[in-house]
Design goal:
single chain; alpha+beta; Umud Fragment, subunit A; two-stranded antiparallel ribbon; 10 strands; Peptidase_S26; mitochondrion inner membrane; LexA/Signal_pep-like_sf; Peptidase S26 domain-containing protein
């Protein structure tokens, strides 16, 4: 008898917990799908994109549709997985697209200008702070598949809202 009374008391509560858990899981699944396929918020830290972005950390909105539909153009600022360490996400400017010829200025002790042809399926990425950036001058052209998204808006700091 006590078991029956216990079931009558806790069954509606259990059902409510289950229903709310399903809604909670659905919400986070939708949020993850949005982040992976549409847009995400990201923070950029480091000196390689000075003066465009602060070295202490600007917060950016990165849209993913441009990379998915191959709508990246020269001059766009993108987020990409680093070819040297795919766990690291880098923020760089696109200087060359596949088939284009890029003029590479001298870096860190290399005193000559080079001309590089960007191969098919790749882009040439470079930081705005050329004297302090690890980029395509170090690791070569970046496969298009490593691009994670195009920076479309800086939202932090509040006085620095900028569209890209």
């Amino acid at each position: 008898m006590q078991m029956l009374q216990w079931c009558r008391t806790w069954k509606p509560i259990g059902r409510e917990i289950c229903e709310r858990s399903v809604l909670f899981i659905q919400f986070f699944c939708c949020l993850d799908i949005f982040k992976e396929h549409v847009a995400e918020i990201s923070q950029v830290v480091g000196p390689s994109m000075l003066p465009t972005f602060s070295a202490t950390g600007d917060v950016l909105v990165v849209e993913r549709l441009s990379t998915r539909f191959q709508r990246i153009k020269q001059g766009d600022v993108v987020m990409a997985a680093s070819p040297e360490n795919p766990r690291l996400i880098v923020c760089k400017r696109v200087l060359g697209l596949e088939g284009e010829r890029v003029v590479v200025m001298p870096t860190k002790g290399n005193g000559r200008v080079q001309h590089v042809q960007v191969p098919k399926g790749h882009v040439w990425l470079q930081g705005d702070n050329t004297s302090n950036s690890t980029d395509s001058r170090d690791y070569g052209p970046v496969p298009y598949g490593l691009l994670r998204g195009k920076v479309c808006l800086r939202v932090w700091p509040p006085n620095g809202w900028t569209r890209f």
